[in-house]
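Fill in residues.
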């Protein structure tokens, strides 16, 4: 017994690896696990009840239905539907019902979709020895197999169409037309549920398809409650399995997580992502970046890890370009910033930028002054990097006098320069100076 107990006591490094492994597993499987599904059902009780009723009526009394589930990407549309199906299956309500899952990203035309439906309904052997002259004939045969028998003897089929808007781009929308036609005419007990992030998806349907759709829409909106909705997500993502309950590192892990959740800095970061993005996908990326900093020296999450991850997630692509700019190009960016501020966002040209740059280089003897061709070449490179662009009505004008606009907010210039190493002090002070 004693030897067995010693084997269960893992070294510190191995325990850290185990914690790292389970948190990464939670991050990958969020939206597919039982805990995340139950959390989503609590977040959308009304919508979940509507979906459950639709599917139950199809399975129990053979009533055909169709509906669209509309919500932002990552909000949990597929997870809600999957959780409902799993719940109905475990309770025995689903019975002999079948679920057919299609994706607009994978089934890029109706022929591929029909082939996938045949595979998931286990009808390959039935169609293997048949030769179909056209797509319509093949589809008619498959639908006939769904219609065979009475409502009591036919197996109910639940069609889940992920990325529903992509199916609208298929030629003539044949698949959608036939599925909705079967659902409307009650020829076979089927339930067609489309999942999409497009609010205008109904306008994408042809008239004949739209006339056969029930126009039932179920919207999933982001929760407006930060606490406890988002904090509960954080708790579930950091949860460890029961098998680790007795390990010392797990006790310290739980203690540090409790401190993290009540840390003001972490709270504000988590809250900011909720208000900016409205769903948990971005928050998962922050936690993933934090977990990449976990090691033997720092085995627990800290507020500094969240801050650094937040900085990486919110960094601007255009400000990152500053790392590859020369001192002359940085001077031109600051000159354009001051011109934009002075003229209240009005466009400028190269001559105006050159004049501002020369004023600065003449005031500061430590700054090297470059000739006009060199300055113009640097200005042209900034245009290639899309930090500036010509206005629409400036075509046909000489390059030196072409009106340009800065494609970077002036408020980000000083902050971006302050994060660079090796920037001359005079240039940094000039960027922070107020121009009147």
């Amino acid at each position: 017994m004693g030897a067995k107990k010693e084997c269960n006591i893992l070294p510190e490094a191995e325990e850290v690896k185990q914690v790292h492994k389970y948190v990464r597993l939670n991050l990958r499987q969020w939206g597919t696990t039982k805990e995340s599904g139950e959390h989503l059902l609590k977040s959308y009780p009304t919508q979940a009840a509507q979906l459950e009723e639709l599917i139950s009526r199809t399975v129990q009394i053979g009533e055909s239905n169709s509906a669209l589930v509309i919500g932002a990407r990552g909000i949990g549309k597929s997870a809600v539907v999957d959780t409902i199906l799993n719940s109905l299956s475990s309770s025995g309500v689903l019975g002999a019902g079948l679920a057919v899952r299609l994706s607009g990203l994978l089934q890029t035309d109706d022929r591929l979709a029909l082939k996938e439906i045949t595979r998931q309904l286990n009808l390959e052997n039935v169609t293997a020895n048949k030769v179909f002259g056209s797509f319509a004939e093949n589809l008619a045969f498959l639908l006939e197999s769904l219609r065979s028998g009475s409502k009591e003897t036919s197996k109910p089929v639940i069609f889940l169409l992920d990325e529903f808007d992509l199916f609208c781009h298929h030629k003539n929308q044949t698949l959608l037309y036939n599925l909705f036609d079967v659902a409307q005419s009650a020829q076979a007990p089927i339930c067609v549920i489309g999942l999409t992030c497009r609010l205008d998806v109904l306008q994408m349907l042809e008239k004949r398809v739209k006339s056969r759709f029930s126009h039932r829409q179920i919207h999933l909106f982001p929760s407006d409650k930060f606490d406890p909705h988002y904090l509960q997500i954080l708790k579930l993502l950091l949860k460890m399995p029961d098998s680790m309950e007795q390990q010392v590192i797990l006790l310290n892990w739980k203690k540090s997580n409790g401190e993290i959740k009540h840390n003001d800095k972490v709270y504000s970061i988590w809250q900011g992502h909720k208000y900016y993005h409205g769903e948990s996908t971005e928050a998962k990326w922050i936690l993933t970046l934090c977990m990449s900093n976990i090691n033997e020296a720092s085995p627990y999450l800290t507020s500094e890890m969240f801050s650094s991850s937040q900085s990486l997630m919110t960094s601007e692509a255009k400000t990152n370009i500053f790392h590859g700019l020369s001192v002359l190009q940085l001077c031109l960016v600051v000159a354009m910033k001051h011109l934009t501020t002075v003229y209240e966002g009005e466009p400028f040209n190269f001559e105006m930028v050159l004049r501002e740059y020369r004023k600065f280089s003449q005031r500061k003897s430590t700054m090297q002054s470059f000739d006009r061709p060199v300055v113009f070449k640097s200005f042209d490179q900034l245009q290639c990097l899309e930090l500036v662009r010509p206005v629409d009505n400036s075509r046909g004008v000489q390059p030196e006098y072409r009106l340009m606009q800065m494609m970077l907010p002036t408020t980000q210039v000083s902050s971006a320069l302050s994060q660079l190493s090796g920037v001359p002090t005079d240039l940094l002070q000039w960027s922070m100076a107020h121009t009147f």
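The first helix runs from residue 2 to 8.
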